[in-house]
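Ticket #4471: structure export looks truncated?
Reporter: QA, pipeline team
Priority: medium

Steps to reproduce: submit the single chain below to the structure queue and open the exported record.
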Amino acid sequence: MQHNAEEESVKPKPKIEAFFHDVWNHWMFKARYFIIFFTVVWIGIALWRTLLFKPANDAFKLMPDDHWLTELQDSLTEDYHTGANDNTIQVSFLYGVTGVDQSKVGRWDASDLGTIVWDDNFDMSSTTAQLRLLDICADLRTSSLVKDSKVTCWVEDFLNAQNGGSPVSQANFYTELETYLATTNGANQYNGNQIGYVDGRLFFMRIMAVAAAEPGTGYETLYPVYEDWEALKDRYNSNSPNGINNAIQTAMNHWAFLITQQELVRGAISGSAISLSFAFAVLLLSTMNIVTATFSISCIGLIMLSAIATMEIIGWTLGVIESIAIVILIGFSVDYVVHFANHYVESIYDDRYRRVQESLGHIGISIISGAITTLGSSAIVFFATVLFFEKFGILVTFTILFSLFFSLVLFSAINHIMGPQKNFGNMKYHVVTPALKKIKELWKKCRNKEDIEDAKEPNTNQMDHKIVPNK
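Actual output as written to the record:
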C-alpha cells in the first residue's frame, strides 16, 4: 500500500486535482479554526432565523401575484362581495353531530368526505335544555369573541313565535317545532341549515356567530382565537344538561386551514427527522466509522438548517411548496458529504492530514462537477411560471451552495482538527471483526463439545453384535 501511495504521488496530477490536493487542502488546514468559528456564528444566526420561520397565511398559490389568473381570483374575492358575511369568520356551535368518520375514505377519492357520526344523545326538547340554549345565545352576544353582537339563534325565533319567548313543554316540543317549520321564518332556518329535522326527528341544530377576528390575519393571530372558541365551547358543554352537552364548534375552512398549517410544520419536522435518521444509518453502513458518520450527518443537518434560515431571510413562509421541498432537499444535502466521507475512511493513509489531502484531490473535482450540473439544471426553472417550480429551483440552488461549503470547507476543517486516524471509530475493526471472531470461537467450542459427547457414547452396533462359536 505504501508503494502504491508513492507511485501515486509521483504521477502528475491534472490542474484541478492538483489545486484541491495541494492549494485548497493547504488553505483548509491553515484556516481550520477560523472556519469552525465562522460556522458557529452562522449556526447561531441560522437557528435564530429558523425559529422565526412561520406558517403561510395564505392557501397554496399556483401562480405568482402578477399572473392574470391570480389577479382574477383576487378581484373576484375583493371587488365582488356576494353577501354581508364575506371576509368574516362564521363560527357555528353544532349540536347533534360528534364528527365525521373517515376511516373508510379513499386517499385519492376527493369526492368521498366520510360519514357523519350523529350524536344519539342529542335532545333539546326539555325546558331546561331550551333555557340553556337561550342563555348561550345571550352570552354570545356579549362575548368579546363575537363581532358587533352578530349571532344567529333560531331557538330565540322559534320560542318567540310559538310561546312568546318562553320554553315550550317537552311533550309538545316536536308538535310546536313542526308548526314553526311550516312558517316562513322556520322554512328559512331549515333551508339555511340551522335545523336538521327529518321524519319527525331533530338530527342537528346550530347557533352561529360572527367572530371578531379577521380572516387571513396569520397563524399566530388566528390560532389563539381558535383556542379561545374551543375553550368557550368546552365551558358551554360543561354547564349544559344532558342532551346538549356535546356540541362541537367549527368555522369551516378558516379553522381547517389552521390545522393544515400545523400539519405542514409537523410534516416538515417529522419528514426531516426520518430522512436524517435514514441518512445516518446509510452513512454508518457505508463508512463503517461512527466518528465520520457523526461528522457527516452533522454537516447534512447544518445544510438543511441553513437552507431553512435562508427561506426565512428572503421572506418566505412555510407553505405547501416549502414543506415538501424541505424533505426532498435532504437528498441533495447528503450527496457531496457522503462522497467525501467514504473517500476519507477508505484512504490508504493513517494520519488525518494526508487523508483529507487525498480525499480532496480525488473527490473535489467530482463534487464541483456535480454542483455545476445541478446548479445549471435548477437555474432553468427560475423562469417557470408555476410557483412550485420557481421556488423549488431556488431552494435547490441554496442547498447546493450550502452543500459545497459544508463539504469542501467545513467537513475538511473538522477532519483536519479531529478526523479519525488509523482505526479510530472503525466499527469493522472494533465491533464487526471481534464479534465475528467471537461467534466463530463459540461455534468451534460447540462443535468440539459435540465431538467429545459423540466419542463418549458406546458403539451400539458393536454391543448388539453376537459372536457365535463354531460348532
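Status: closed, not a bug. The export was complete when the record was re-opened. Leaving a note from the reviewer for reference: The domain at 2-57+260-418 is CATH 1.20.1640.10 (Multidrug efflux transporter AcrB transmembrane fold).
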